[in-house]
Amino acid sequence: MIVVFASSKGGVGKSTTCAAAGAALALEGARVLILDLDQNRTVHRWSQKFPVDRLMVEAATADNFTSIFKSRHGAGDFDHILIDLAGARELTMQKAIARADLVIIPAQASEPDIREALVIAGDIRDIEETATRKIPYRLLLTKMYPLRTRVSDFAFNELARLGLPMFKTVLVERTAYREMFLNGEPPSKAETGKGAGLEIATLLDEIEEIIDPMSHAQHALQAAE
Ligand SMILES: Nc1ncnc2c1ncn2[C@@H]1O[C@H](COP(=O)(O)OP(=O)(O)OP(=O)(O)O)[C@@H](O)[C@H]1O
Ligand SMILES: [Mg+2]
After folding, report:
1. Number of structural domains, the chain?
2. 186 lines ligand 1 (CB under 6 A)
3. Domain span at residue 11?
């Protein structure tokens, strides 16, 4: 699958979520490529310092994105390609979204973040017209307070009112995410089956359900047996 992490806002958790999801898939046995288009190269530097088996992170730029993407995708060496974008609305964002099976828009539960997410959703609909295919997208609430607050209630109500599709999974503000780029431990290793590890697992489950409902149903059946 090809999953793009996009938002025009910085610091919402694109790189963190992308790296955590990529590492979780690789730890499960998949061959994963993360294309790092974030100028900060956060994910690329992390992977150089703390390599994860079967997870390759390659830095790309607006100029070489298409050629790198085509050669990696065409070679078929990876089960999944995740794309981490810069926190800006720019040409690379359009190029990446046009290739996506799913776009994830991380956002905090705040009015400005939700407005920004609406803008990206509008961009995706424009790109769908030129791509002449549906490009699914979901908003992902990140860095949430663990307890329900007026702010989170506002976010959920506002998202429902605006008709923005969102993940049921939300990522709570947790040390395991914050520490990943410092100590290298992906959340699914640091907190296997609980906390951040569990959140990433449920997020991946939802992603599969959206992109590949048949496989998801089969996996759910196997798990129930
Ligand atoms: N769920 C979370 N819990 C705690 N800290 C988080 C969480 N998600 C992200 N962070 C922290 O928030 C900061 C910004 O996260 P990140 O770099 O992933 O954002 P970004 O959207 O990629 O930003 P940019 O647009 O600048 O690339 C980092 O310090 C990261 O450790
Ligand atoms: Mg980033």
Report:
1. 1
2. no
3. 2-224
